[in-house]
Amino acid sequence: MSAREVLQIADKIKELTLKGKGFALVFIADYKGHSARHEGAAMLVSEDGSSVGTVGGGSLEKFAIDKALEFIKRGSGGIIEIPATSEIGSSCGGAVTLYIKVVPPPETLVIFGAGHVGSALSKLASQLGFKVIIVDDRQEFAVKDRFPEASEVLLAKPEDAVLKIPKGDNVYVAVMYYSSDVELNILRELLKFNFRYLGVIASPVKTLKYLDVLYKEYPEDKLKALRAPMGLDIGSGEEPIDIALSIMAEIQAVRYNTSAKPLNKVPELIEQLKKKAQFA
After folding, report:
1. Does residue 209 have a pLDDT over 70?
2. Which H or E run includes 17?
3. N or C: which end of the chain has fewer CB within 10 A?
4. Are strands 78-82 and 108-112 parallel, antiparallel or unpaired?
5. How confident is the model at residue 85 (pLDDT cuts 50, 70, 90)?
6. For 194, how many CA atoms within 13 A lie in the half-sphere containing its CB?
């Protein structure tokens, strides 16, 4: 693979990552016989089927693109061995082994509210590998300089921003807006879509107020996906970083589908030692 191809693939990776898109990398891991491309040749395949680079063209490349799209859809890669006796192998001149690596879309955290808690949460999320998008309609708050770690800062009416943000199972949304009325409207719009996580900073009293309105517009199972007040009870203080840590802890638990229970095993292990001592 030439230096030019490496740069083209690297540029495409950067472009797709910034757009929140997944892709697959196809490599020739091994070959026997004649081949237009040799071991190490690579090609990037986007979700839409477009590609950059080449593994040899012709029927082999079409086969590789089709397989890459299958693997992108299932979310995992793999190794494919194409014998020389197959139709594809004979047409490309020999046996070829392809290695396909799937790179899923980056997990994204959208934060509605560019205040102090939003700033602290943005920094934590960025350190944990999230692509962060900030939304606020206040010009003095929605400034990139305040959120250097964020991929995007949207200065827009929240209801309009809902239409612009990504949706789906790799998107997490945290709402912490300065106005309760606007916050309710944000939730109204967000609940029209599916997200991996949707939470709002709200007291139980405010949560009840929101639910009283939303219950008339959305089914119960949809509302149960909303987390309010969001965050885990970790005894946090009242500083922005304390609140952000509580929220991030819950998001991480959802991200990795865990119970968020303590890892401590000392009491359990002591009981095991006591039972062992009884039968010693």
Report:
1. yes
2. helix 3-18
3. C
4. unpaired
5. low
6. 4
Q: What are the structure tokens assigned to 58, written together?
A: 């012709």
Alpha-carbon distance of 125 to 119, in angstroms, equals 10
Q: Which residues of 190-210 are buried (b: 16+ CB within 10 A; e: fewer)?
A: bbeeebbbbbbbbeeebbeeb
Q: Binning pLDDT at 50, 70 and 90, where does residue 217 land?
A: very high
Which residues contact residue 211 at a Cβ distance below 8 angstroms, ignoring those fewer than 6 apart? 223
Distance (Å, whole) CA 44 – CA 48: 11
DSSP state of 107: P
Using omega within 30 degrees of 0 as the cis cutoff, is the peptide bond preceding 148 cis?
no
Q: Spell out the SS3 assignment of 151-214.
A: CEEEECCHHHHHHHCCCEEEEEEEECCCCHHHHHHHHHHHCCCCEEEEEECCCHHHHHHHHHHH
Burial tier of 248 (Cβ tally within 10 Å: 0-12, 13-18, 19+): buried
Consecutive H or E run containing 32? strand 23-33
> What is the distance between the alpha carbons of residues 173 and 96, in angstroms, rounded to a whole number?
44
Burial of residue 241 (number of CB atoms within 10 Å: 0-12, 13-18, 19+) = middle
Sheet containing 168-175, strands listed edge to edge, beginning at the edge strand earlier in sequence: 152-155, 131-136, 108-112, 168-175, 195-200, 226-227
Q: What pTM was estimated for this model as a whole?
A: 0.74
Local structure of 59: helix, strand or coil: helix
Residue in this structure with the two tokens 């809902």, named with its chain if needed: 162
